Each structure stands twice: as C-alpha cells, then as structure tokens.
C-alpha cells in the first residue's frame, strides 16, 4: 500500500469514527430506559389475604344429672334405732328399699357417666380433627401463596439480571465510543502537530 492510499484509508476510518461519535452525541443517542430495557414489568399481587377460617364450635355433651342419686341417698339415711324397735316398725324394710333405690340410681349414674365420658371423648376428637383440618387447609393456602411469591421473585431476579446486562452492554458501547473519540482526537492532534512542524 502506498502512503497516499494509507492516508486515504486513515481519513476514511477517522470520518467513520467522527460519524459514530456525532451519532452518539445526537438526540437519537439519548434513549429512555424504556427504549433500552423495554417496558417495566408490573408487580402482580399474590392474591387477597385469606381470612382466618372460623373454628368449629366446641359442643361437648351435657354431663349426667346427679340429682336422683343425691335424693335417694338423703332418703335412705339411717336413723339410729334399736334393733328390736326397727324390726317392729318396719324401718329395716324401708332402709332396704332405700338402699335398693340408691343402688339403682347409682348404677344408672355410673352408666350415664360412662356414656357421657365416651361422648365427651368423641366430641373432643371430632372438634380436634376439624380444627386440624382447617389449619392444614390454611397452611396449604399459605404454601400455595409462598410458591407463587417465589415464582414472582425468580421472575423479577431474571428480569433484573437481564436489565443489568443491557445496562452494562450500553455502558460498554459508551466506553468503546469514547475510546474511538479519543483515538480520533489523538489522530487529529498528531495531524495538527505534523502540520505545525
């Protein structure tokens, strides 16, 4: 290549760099973040806060009535009497009947207490199972919302990484443009120095 051709190529390159620098400085180079990065993503809420579920009503059975046993106990209270007098007035027979009535009432109370205890345990377990079931449903809803938020967070992190890459790329373009402008200025300065010699 002759020195004239080399100078011509150098001038062409300098002109191309000048156009690139002027283009970078023009209004077209001023870009909004939306033009570079695209529209900003809207944050979608995870959903309405689920209200705390109403707990089931605790309804234990009513305890058995103690009144019949207590009354029969009072009626059969023994009176201090002599043995012969008690035989003559029939008080032993009355005491025996009162004892039988009391024993009958006591057996009925015992059976009612056993039934009441079984029903109480059944009601307790039913209530507990209902509470645990509702709390499990609530925990499942919370887990579902957390998974949705996790997906949303991952999406935002990926979007942020993409935006950072775009911004770093734009910065690199600016750096290259500035280096080209500096090279062009150096070449012009060298050319001026040569002319001044």
* Order of H and E elements: HHHHH
What are the low-pLDDT stretches, counting only 5+ consecutive residues below 50? none
Query: Largest sheet at a glance?
Result: none
The average pLDDT is: 78
Question: What percent strand?
Answer: under 5%
- Give the CA-based shape: rod-shaped
- How many strands appear in the DSSP assignment? 0
> How many structural domains?
1
Category from helices, strands and their pairing: mainly alpha
- Taking the alpha carbons of the first and last residues, their distance comes to 25 Å
Helix content: over 70%
- Helix count, per DSSP? 5
Using the CA coordinates, give the radius of gyration: 50 Å
Which helices and strands appear, and what pairs or packs with what?
Elements: H1 3-25, H2 33-37, H3 67-75, H4 83-89, H5 91-196
Overview of the molecule:
This protein has one domain. Helices cover 76% and strands 0% of the residues. The radius of gyration is 50 Å and the shape is rod-shaped. The chain is built from five helices and no strands. The chain is an all-alpha fold and 197 residues long.
List key phrases describing it.
single chain; 197 residues; mainly alpha
Write a concise synopsis of the structure shown.
The protein is an all-alpha fold. Helices cover 76% and strands 0% of the residues.
């Amino acid at each position: 290549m002759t020195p004239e051709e080399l100078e011509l190529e150098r001038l062409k390159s300098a002109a191309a760099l000048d156009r690139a620098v002027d283009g970078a400085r023009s209004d077209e180079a001023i870009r909004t973040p939306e033009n570079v990065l695209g529209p900003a993503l809207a944050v979608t809420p995870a959903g309405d806060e689920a209200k705390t579920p109403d707990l089931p009503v605790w309804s234990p059975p009513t305890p058995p009535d103690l009144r019949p046993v207590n009354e029969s106990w009072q009626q059969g209270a023994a009176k201090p009497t002599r043995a012969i007098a008690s035989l003559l007035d029939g008080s032993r027979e009355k005491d025996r009947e009162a004892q039988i009535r009391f024993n009958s009432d006591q057996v009925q109370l015992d059976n009612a207490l056993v039934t009441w205890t079984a029903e109480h345990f059944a009601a307790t377990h039913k209530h507990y199972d209902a509470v645990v079931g509702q709390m499990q449903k609530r925990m499942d809803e919370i887990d579902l919302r957390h998974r949705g938020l996790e997906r949303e967070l991952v999406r935002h992190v990926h979007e942020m990484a993409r935006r950072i890459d775009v911004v770093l790329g734009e910065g690199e373009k600016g750096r290259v443009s500035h280096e080209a402008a500096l090279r062009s200025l150096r070449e012009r300065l060298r050319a001026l120095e040569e002319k001044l010699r």
